[in-house]
Hints:
Mean pLDDT: 95
Distance between the termini: 24 Å
Structural class: mainly beta
CATH topology: Jelly Rolls
Strand content: over 45%
Largest sheet: 9 strands, antiparallel
Radius of gyration: 14 Å
Shape: globular
Low-confidence stretches: none
Amino acid sequence: xxxxxxxxxxxxxxxxxxxxxxxxxxxxxxxxxxxxxxxxxxxxxxxxxxxxxxxxxxxxxxxxxxxxxxxxxxxxxxxxxxxxxxxxxxxxxxxxxxxxxxxxxxxxxxxxxxxxxxx
Length: 119
């Protein structure tokens, strides 16, 4: 059993095609990712998305994100805006709703945790 995970450079780590954002509002964003670890409720990985506008709804998932590449912004349902750029860190709690505006391909390292009663 592996008890640790190492990625030499998350900005160049190989990714594979992933499901596109489900609620696309503009453009044709394509997603890729690699899952580094998954257990019953937790997923840790690297995710990338090409330009476009899409809605994100995290009904049963809390997610920690550290952006390592790209440019854009996320407009949260309360009207606040988070700029996406290398170094941006964001945490969203289950029930979160927001709209992503991806101007340049964004890449993030993420940890997603499913709400305990949603399993």
